[in-house]
């Protein structure tokens, strides 16, 4: 049997859905056919290898591969699969290779060989690279598909290399008519998958800039990525993506154009120098080719899959690395002449026939040694790309210009803003400092300081933030009333808001607003409104007004093209008190994502978007979906090298949900990562550790941890009712005495906590103190709250039921238990456990309709995904590996699924999900 080819990554990336489909075919224990399609290097063989590694030891495996030239070697693929294999009938094998026999006889011999080897056992038979296969092998593939029994037949091919004359073309048509064919089309990786692959190969998160550059360079092709990394696994990825192509990869790529006609070669060489996207008229101007001649050459290159037509009169290379390999084969003077010709054509085009992309102009000017032209194009292009949200492109162009003129303030400003929007915090800080130090005007200095304050906050450099704010305050005193002074006031408002100095933030924003209104400064007005609205949402007494300010400015900001301001406002609206309906909440989140993408604001477009999805799920009472959103976002981000506040951005929220679920191992792991990772709020780690110790025996000294919590609260500038409720509930579970509970509560509450949470906390204390009528009234008062999420209202209803039972009011208790059952129908963990205890006291047993939807319909999307994997036979350890979660979390998911489906074993899950 031929050993399937592998890759440098220790785990398969981005093909879980396809692997699940193949495993489902195998698990069905009946004849099945699958065809895997994709370009070279996209991972067809890796997918097959991953499938084969999961098969039972008694399964029969045959893997054969067609090679270029196989068309003239009948049955080459099967003979390759049988080469060196024990147990093959030598007589039948001789008949298969006997060219004196008729094709029909040899076909029957091949079918008998396969049938005897399988002998009714489960089997997987793989014919790789069918685009090269001979017609006899294609016919044999079809006949094997007709064999009855528990075998799966898998073929792979490259669609771009299949023509109407190839045997596989007819084979695909016939299989589609005669069999239930599973077709899997593998596509190149997106940036997130690229980051995951880089992290898997190198063993560490990848810098975002390296991810973007390598993804663009390789087109997301896994083989190309691995080839570029080969031998550089321990190197700095920032340097690797600038390395020349390794010899083996360059040869593979250049082989695609080895036999081109001379005119086609001349055209493709010119195209390789002209850039990623090549315009027909520019190619004609540079090569001097006539229209008919160029049409013929381009048609041939598209037919050979060297180029693809990406728009009207626009062409691109199928892979950026192919373009690089061809251009790298040209001599230096040849490349410079082509760049010079392109630059002259673009500059001479006064009628707008050619694409006037500043990056293209700058690229050709730099390669031609025309540096003044390059700088002019770079300055223009940076502003353009920032205005359309292309942050990475703006940064690359700014850095191209700065390599020639390192003191240019406009390029430094563009580089700083672009790096910040793209999430490249260290780069942004470095460029912003240089921008401030080389500022030629008060406006430049002011703008630089405004950005630097934000960057210092994201980097968690509080002392630097204070220094920068003081510097802006001094600047305000020096500046005359005008746009610069108003913007500086807005910068101080932002600094105060970020440091939770709410009153100061509102005061500075009002000063900026007054000046903006007086001098008609619409941009400054919008920026000041955002800072004021964000600050006011921190106080319950002004939160509604703050949200109204933010909601009222979004339309205006979008019309003005101020996408960053619009996205920041929308992000706060998503995180704050929710709108009237989940649909409206989801609409706000999508609008935030779109505006952030338009700005190129990576952190809001991606990381904050996952948190928004989790918050919506919490607001809908769906714990599984909330956890799934955060796990997905966290796994994606952990493949990137992040610093400052965006490092492990989802960890704290996820730890809180794990505590809700009872996934204590997951919480412990996150606590350890937070201890050694980025700086967080003072109470975060002590609060999580205390909560965990209260709920898991042996997790820590609860009284000592409470002392740590109280010390940390004193250093926290804000208070949270949600935090108070959660920690108090944990403290009660941990058995702390009443005086300690009161001490904790007084430390956690202040006048700015929402009244509904204060009422809930008072009810919790009243219940512990035995003041049951007060507790019952308090719990019932918040059960219909618009502020509290369903899970917390559910706990309030459970508390009300407990108190009613203790007061011998079973009717009230039953009503409150029913309300809690509805609110907690899609929750889990300690809140549901408390409900179940009350239901037991009431003598209630779960019945259809009593706890909401049951059966497969009750599964969350994440649980349904897990259920399908369980049906495929995955163990908890395999579930954890596939879904990037801990085995403990996997076990909790399995337990919840079995409970919701009403089954007792994993083998019953598949049938239940099918129903």
From TrEMBL:
<dbReference type="GO" id="GO:0004016">
    <property type="term" value="F:adenylate cyclase activity"/>
</dbReference>
<keyword id="KW-0067">ATP-binding</keyword>
<dbReference type="GO" id="GO:0003677">
    <property type="term" value="F:DNA binding"/>
</dbReference>
<protein>
    <submittedName>
        <fullName>Regulatory protein, luxR family</fullName>
    </submittedName>
</protein>
<keyword id="KW-0547">Nucleotide-binding</keyword>
<dbReference type="GO" id="GO:0005737">
    <property type="term" value="C:cytoplasm"/>
</dbReference>
<dbReference type="GO" id="GO:0006355">
    <property type="term" value="P:regulation of DNA-templated transcription"/>
</dbReference>
<dbReference type="InterPro" id="IPR000792">
    <property type="entry name" value="Tscrpt_reg_LuxR_C"/>
</dbReference>
<dbReference type="InterPro" id="IPR041664">
    <property type="entry name" value="AAA_16"/>
</dbReference>
<dbReference type="Pfam" id="PF13191">
    <property type="entry name" value="AAA_16"/>
</dbReference>
<dbReference type="Pfam" id="PF00196">
    <property type="entry name" value="GerE"/>
</dbReference>
<dbReference type="InterPro" id="IPR036388">
    <property type="entry name" value="WH-like_DNA-bd_sf"/>
</dbReference>
<dbReference type="InterPro" id="IPR016032">
    <property type="entry name" value="Sig_transdc_resp-reg_C-effctor"/>
</dbReference>
<feature type="domain" description="HTH luxR-type">
    <location>
        <begin position="852"/>
        <end position="915"/>
    </location>
</feature>
<dbReference type="InterPro" id="IPR027417">
    <property type="entry name" value="P-loop_NTPase"/>
</dbReference>
<dbReference type="GO" id="GO:0005524">
    <property type="term" value="F:ATP binding"/>
</dbReference>
